[in-house]
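Data deposition worksheet. Section B asks for the primary sequence of the deposited chain exactly as it was used as input, without tags or linkers unless they were present during the calculation. Section C holds the resulting structure in token form. Section D is free text for depositor observations; keep each observation to a single sentence. Incomplete worksheets are returned to the depositor.
Section A, Depositor: J.P.
Section B:
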Amino acid sequence: MTAPKKLSTRKKVRFAGGCLGLVLLAILASEGCLRLAGYPTGIVRTFSKLWNRDPESLAKLPGLFAPSVERHVAYPPELAYRVRFNASGLRGPELRAEKPKLRVLALGDSVTFGYHVDDPHTYPAYLRELVGEDVEVVNGGCGSFTITDERRYLEERLLKVEPDAVVLQFCANDVGPVELDRQPSRYEEILDDPGGGGWFRSTALGEVQLRAAIALKSWRRGPPQNLGDPAQPVDPTKWARYAEELGELKALLDAREIPLLLVSFTDLDVTRNGKPSPYDGELTRIAGELGIPYASTLPTYRAHAEPTELYLYPLDGHPSALGNQLLAQVVRELLRSSGVLP
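Section C:
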């Protein structure tokens, strides 16, 4: 019985190369077919995947987000939303080439940015509809920001948009230890983050893999419940820190003769518990001492027949489209009463 003939090294290499070529051809064919089917669609799983990962453009632009792109934030699926960024790296339409009579900068956290709502349903978008063609509203919100992040964001980047007025939005998290004492700050984290998900996530095959991962993760858990904790008394040292940062922010704008206004977004628990807000009293005092026009959404929200409709209840504590619309109305009246808006 003759022994089987052994393949030469050259033939083994050629065979392995042929197999590798077939695999690569299959991958390229799959990528091509998926692209013909409309992939990739710009899906991401987390908010952090919206940041601008290009150091060169990040250094030049006022915004922190990937410029001139549209993304679909797909997790959790029940709260998925689409977001478009302009060439300045900010959410919303392009800044007008010719500066309008009045440019209002909406500065704040995830409420101002518009977590879990599409572009037309953010509070800056609603405010844009309410104030008329002569006024431009710029969305300067970023998720997880607090007063320390917002002050630096304004000073180092957002002043480039040349605002005529700044409306700072307060949220209960702003005086909480998680955001206020974060080290490094969220703003620093964004600027220093070297990641970006790699090139694979920008391919059609990468998106299919991401969709499968999102579906698997969603199947393993129940529906999200992120309504926030019940309102608690705030440590006086946190209020002092907030007041200090707010004073520095006002001084920064006073030097440029730009008025600063403050609006408070009211959490669901405070809206429906019927008790005095643990935040509005301190904010009224601080704003009064600093000479900052102030308004709260609490009276408007409590006047609504069903407060839960103003939030993404029962899935999340951020404002719904209706909640953002009422917030925009409160800001419009604040702009009017302060004399910023005719």
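Section D:
The beta strands are 43-44, 70-73, 81-84, 102-108, 135-141, 165-170, 260-264, 294-296.
Residues 119 and 146 are 22 Å apart (CA to CA).
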